[in-house]
Amino acid sequence: MDRLITACVQQRMRLPNSIDDYVGDLRRFMRIAEKKNARLIIFPELAGIMIAPTLLQDFRSSLLKRSDQSRRASASFWEKLSGPIYNGAAALLRANFRNSVEALLEVAPDQLLDTYVDVFAGLAKEFGVTIVAPSCYLPDRLTKNIHNMAGVFGPNGEELGFQAKVMVHPSSDELGQPGESWEVVPTEVGRLGVILGSDVLYPEVGRLLAYQKADVLISQAACVEPVQYNKVRSGMLARMQDNQLFGVSSFLVGPNELLGDRRSPFVGRSAVFAPQELTLRLNGIMVEMGNQRSEGVITAEWDFAELRELWHSSETPIRQLPTDEKIQPLLGQLYERLQNLPFYRSQDELLELPEQSSFNGSTLEAVTLTLDELPVVSSISSRWPLPELPDLSDLPFEQTIDDTDLQTLVSQNTLIIGADDETEELDALNDHGGK
Q1: CA torsion angle for 56, 61, 64, 65 (degrees, to 10)?
Q2: Is the Cβ–Cβ distance between 371 and 364 less than 8 Å?
Q3: How many other CB atoms are there within 10 angstroms of residue 291's CB atom?
Q4: Collapsing DSSP states into helix, strand and coil, what is residue 146?
Q5: Is the distance from CB of 211 to CB of 179 less than 8 angstroms?
Q6: pTM of this structure
Q7: How many other CB atoms are there within 10 angstroms of residue 191's CB atom?
Q8: What values do phi and psi take at 150, rounded to 5?
Q9: Distance, CA of 421 to chain centre
Q10: pLDDT by residue (tens digit) across 110-142?
Q11: Which residue intervals of 218-264 are DSSP H helices?
């Protein structure tokens, strides 16, 4: 496929009452993408967790869902009027969406996974497109471990693969375990490399996916602070440019129901990227959302023929570097060396190093060297200490030393003259006027 129109969804977090409500909300984005003839549609990180409220039927969860419904623009007059009542009751009973999700993952994780697959496989088949579904906390079918995972579904409704988040933030440790690797997902629109959250900040991730012959890098993120969003955005731009691939970042926005009042709302501006050489303003951005908190769909067309031409014509021919057979051993040796280097988390940890420590099988000891044992960094013509020069302060200014006296001083090694006594560095300085 030489050309591909991709659609990137920027979505708000909500607490739908039923699965029909959730699917109906998703269809809004799908119809917009369909009108733009998009063949690949990407949703943001953690937007899949909105399936959980549809499976929660307890009283506390019902209060949270009604409170959320009252804040929507489509809410009726009665819903807006009763919203503060539901919100107060939820606070009084300490209703917490995160706790409800944890409980659901303990008692019915397979039901959450099955519903997730049914929803997005059904939408992919209904619209005949490839969908990178929003990530959700789901169980691995083999290990049964819970991960923050995003699924990829083909236009026939087939399940093409899952990608788990590997670098898990401490605040979400209790919800899911880190994944183990990054793998390219083959689809009819190309080989997709999916990167979740802060994983995009690690250069090795993008290079690993590029070596697996990825055509597109896809970043899904849910950022709770502007600085976090800007870091993820910059990381995605770097991974895309590092590897000369097309890229896209999809952000979750709106109220942070998953963490409640402890964190600020989700923010971000979703964007579609291309190598700087292929963008109008040479900044790597093809199209970007104009608001950090609003929902929307943006689309752009990727020209893969133009991208392949760039691989051959760029002044930084990343794709023309040594073949995999040559570069992979070099990278292996590099990372082996990095693993053997000491890593210090703080300056205090560095200062607290013992005088004797083990490193790579050898022993480091504190050694005292004399001046004569120091390594030579430049050469001088006399040993230390230097001989004292004769006291010539009593000589009149006009008086000079005749040749006989000069030879005597030199023979006694009490007067040092000539370029032989200067370092090469000083010679270089003199050649430039002594500056």
Answers
A1: 30
A2: no
A3: 12
A4: strand
A5: no
A6: 0.76
A7: 15
A8: -115, 135
A9: 56
A10: 999 999 999 999 999 999 999 999 999 999 999
A11: 226-243
What does the block give as tokens for 352?
Answer: 């607290």
Give pLDDT tens digits for 133-180: 999 999 999 999 999 999 999 999 999 999 999 998 776 667 889 999
145 and 168 in contact (C-beta within 8 Å)? no
Lowest mean pLDDT among 1-15, 62-76, 151-165, 417-431: 417-431
Strand partners, 196: 220
Q: How many CB atoms lie within 10 A of CB 403?
A: 7
Residue 152, class by beta-carbon neighbours within 10 Å (0-12 exposed, 13-18 middle, 19+ buried)?
A: buried
> In which residue are the tokens 């929307």 written?
296
Residue 231 contacts residue 220 (beta carbons within 8 Å): no
Task: Look at residue 267 and give its three-state secondary structure.
Answer: strand
- For residue 143, what are its two tokens? 């290990």
What are the tens digits of pLDDT across the range 376-405? 555 545 555 555 655 555 555 444 555 555
Pairwise CA distance, residues 362 & 355, whole Å: 14
374, pLDDT greater than 80: no
Residues sharing a CB contact under 8 Å with residue 366, sequence separation 6 or more, in sequence order: 355, 356
**Tokens describing residue 317:** 């021919």
**What's the rounded Cα separation, in Å, for the pair 388 and 134?**
81
* Amino acid at site 362: S
Check residue 254 and report its DSSP letter: B
The dihedral through the CA atoms of 196, 201, 205, 211 has a sign that is positive
Peptide bond into 375 cis (omega under 30): no
Burial degree of 397 (CB within 10 A; 0-12, 13-18, 19+): exposed
**Contact yes or no for 175/153 (Cβ under 8 A):** no
Cβ 7 vs Cβ 298: under 8 Å: yes
